[in-house]
């Protein structure tokens, strides 16, 4: 494990962090605006988006996929269920596992609003060419995996 870095490497890393944080904030504002426009907080919208794009999810997996603590997941699921967007269903093969699924109402609502959200996200990233977008995805995955790996050293 490398323990020493040049001043130039340190400065470049700090600049990268600042640029990354500003870009993330700017781009995520588009998604936040969408969620609020449709009456959801960003976490609720993220849960709905996950269920819409990936299908039913175990409650335990929702938290880890969206980087949420379990208390937040329960609160958000309760609220979305109360408002008729999702429902819980027990796994028939594993009675300890519970899935969150979109209701027909939730599916229909996301069918209506998600295409608009997707276009807005495409617009937010339109400053990059398709090739640059693909490259950025790969670079961010690589940086994230490496950084996560370092946490456990």
UniProtKB/TrEMBL annotation:
Keywords: DNA-binding, Transcription, Transcription regulation. It holds the Pfam family MarR. Residues 13-145 form the HTH marR-type domain. The keyword Signal does not apply. One of its GO terms (molecular function) is DNA binding. PANTHER family: TRANSCRIPTIONAL REGULATOR, MARR (PTHR42756), TRANSCRIPTIONAL REPRESSOR OF EMRAB OPERON (PTHR42756:SF1). This is MarR family transcriptional regulator. It comes from Metabacillus arenae.
